[in-house]
Automatic annotation (TrEMBL):
This is PsiF repeat-containing protein. Residues 25-48 have a biased composition (Low complexity). It comes from the Bacteria. It comes from Rhizobium tropici. Residues 1-22 form the signal peptide.
């Protein structure tokens, strides 16, 4: 019984290691077959996916609203609602 378990385990390990090797072998071939036009369009796509930076005025308003929420001891949904209303009013309650 112990030998059968050992052979079964070895068979699974061999099966998974072969499939893992096959996946890593196919990955480089797909990257080397890309066309130059596809590689030139990639940088523009990645720059558009970055989150936009907040303007300094928006950051100041957000920080002011957070400070006010901290002073009131708000947490959870109440804090989120307070901050939302505060930011709509430009940092004033």
């Amino acid at each position: 019984m112990r030998i059968a378990t050992m052979f079964t385990t070895a068979a699974f390990v061999a099966l998974f290691s072969v499939s893992a090797m096959a996946q890593t072998a196919t990955t480089p071939s797909t990257t080397t077959t890309t066309t130059p036009s596809a590689t030139t369009s990639t940088p523009s796509a990645t720059t558009t996916m970055k989150p936009k930076a907040m303007k300094p005025a928006q950051t100041a308003v957000s920080k002011a609203c957070s400070t006010q929420a901290d002073a009131k001891g708000l947490h959870g949904k109440a804090r989120a609602k307070f901050r939302s209303d505060c930011k709509k009013n430009g940092g004033k309650v």
